[in-house]
Amino acid sequence: xxxxxxxxxxxxxxxxxxxxxxxxxxxxxxxxxxxxxxxxxxxxxxxxxxxxxxxxxxxxxxxxxxxxxxxxxxxxxxxxxxxxxxxxxxxxxxxxxxxxxxxxxxxxxxxxxxxxxxxxxxxxxxxxxxxxxxxxxxxxxxxxxxxxxxxxxxxxxxxxxxxxxxxxxxxxxxxxxxxxxxxxxxxxxxxxxxxxxxxxxxxxxxxxxxxxxxxxxxxxxxxxxxxxxxxxxxxxxxxxxxxxxxxxxxxxxxxxxxxxxxxxxxxxxxxxxxxxxxxxxxxxxxxxxxxxxxxxxxxxxxxxxxxxxxxxxxxxxxxxxxxxxxxxxxxxxxxxxxxxxxxxxxxxxxxxxxxxxxxxxxxxxxxxxxxxxxxxxxxxxxxxxxxxxxxxxxxxxxxxxxxxxxxxxxx
Length: 411
Known about the structure:
The chain is an alpha/beta fold. The protein is built from 16 helices and eight strands. The longest helix has 24 residues.
């Protein structure tokens, strides 16, 4: 689905932002007017124009809040955080660019202005103990939506994390609101390679995501006893998070349901298929040939430039070949059949990020499972259904409701 830009990377990131309009994370006119000002394929132009829009909308929020208009302020801040996030996105071609931290922090600050004071649900910022440091998270408590009649019953709880490039603030306008509206508590967090953890703590991705999820579940069990029903604990991973969540569920059996949006089977194998004849040089470890070819492609293709630059950063790789090779451990081969909980595998019809992966995951699962394909006709064919979040969440939560139907409480 092309929007404004012919450049696939620019078009998709614009669509990703517009898609969050349904849950208040953008406004269509603001997105289109920003896009029309951007020079095709120019990362600096992308940053400049999205930053200008973010600053303007954030100011709307400040003005409304100072005048006591809390709803208007909340709505503006929820758009502004997403525009700041989008402005920062293509800066990752140079991880040393100081604007990455500055712009990312503005995104977090705008979200927190809405979250801590203005959102209809109570939001608690948490630090989850993890290997001598901590992982940042937000705990959303559904009961506080109706303080006149709070329920004392433990609620089903959804743990959410993103994937290769997202931030947990974005999860609020893609998934969290939908979960809260259906009676689920939510915990979002950022792990190694993601959000604050890579930007400030400089901890890169790890393939054995169960070592990340187990401390997260321990945290929920220790801090939210009586609020979260540990027998109705679901895990959802977005994009590359589809691999991470599946890997975690294979080893952490306190997870009662798992949602893979999308299913990711073998990331290294996926790279090799896309590289064509260059895959032979990768297999042989020929750094001169591989790095020269990929760096040439990066010069001409904005998508390749961003993916490889971002990947080298978040995987702590020294060059393109090293990044590709570090993906060898990111596979569900000999792992998927260890998953015991009911698992939902999603696929978007025209998704080119992990083509064929969802069906491979589904076929490898031995647990109760369901596969859902989102189509062009539905307007949901792009990666993670970014242009059809309402439909995506309908299918996700209808399935999850069914999994938990014997005990779920929607009061």
